[in-house]
Design goal:
- A four-stranded antiparallel beta sheet has the order 3-4-5-8, with no helix packed on it. The chain has a four-stranded antiparallel beta sheet with strand order 9-10-11-12, with no helix packed on it.
- By secondary structure, the chain is an all-beta fold.
- The radius of gyration is 20 Å and the shape is globular.
- The protein folds into two domains: 192 residues, no CATH class; 78 residues, Immunoglobulin-like, CATH 2.60.40.2550.
- The protein contains no helices and 23 strands.
Length: 305
Amino acid sequence: MGDNRIYIFEIVNPFAPYTFFLYNPTYSETPQTTGEVQYADVLEFDYSGEYLMYDAFNELSSSLGEDISYWDIGFLKFRENGEIVSGNEVFISKLFNGLPEKSSVGNPTFSKNSPYIIAFDFIDDLNNRYDVFGANTETGDVDYLVANNGALAWPSYNRLDDALIFERPFGNTTNIYRRGISTNKITGLGNAALFIQDRNWGVWFANGSRSLMVDAGEATANRLQLSLAPNPATDAVRLSFTAAKSGPASVVVTDLLGRAVTSRQWPVTEGENQLDMNLLGVPAGTYIVRLLLNGDAAALKLIKR
């Protein structure tokens, strides 16, 4: 048996840790499988100081008799309104609410300057393939940072977020390589070059100060002035936006793999508009709400409790 607890310490009181039990959000009232989070591995605080990002190993017992094991990535909201929450009331969401068959994600890391950009390993057990993906959690975009790496890469962004270091097997040893990154921070550029020989588990860090230049919560304002409330939401969410002229509008809610979970189309009028979307039946997790109107588009991150 593993240990599905995470302990968070405050330096001012190091002998009284806060204990949080990891769990998988419930996806239906009558699930086909049951199981537990066995243990967490990689841990990284987000820039707001309210969330802890982690990867965890899971084992599930299927009603069909075939046990399933996999790694996934979660976000534990341990602080609200400046206070650490009770371990029994902690909210957990997942980077992906459902993974392809026999696949896992792990070893997540934030970019150095954009709180909504994450790099992580993707493991495809069906094809014995290892890739490194970058994800923009505000827009839902996902792309290859490193394709077909041959093994776990343990990625790490450099100080300027214009390159990634990662490990790769070479013969009987492991080297650390460096590859350039597009300005979107989730797409690799050019060929990987040897960075440090015969080493692994590289982490890029620097001393100094920085300005994130972004809000760690919602996406930047746009011409449609899209907003969501409440967020996090439970049974429904209200979209508010401004239309320059009347016309047809469409809203699609997708998970971070780009799969649509609900959508709606309706006519809007010039000026301020509001739309209530029903979220009943939508599993708890993180989603992207995309609004398309008169050739304009806007997207915001939505957390469903």
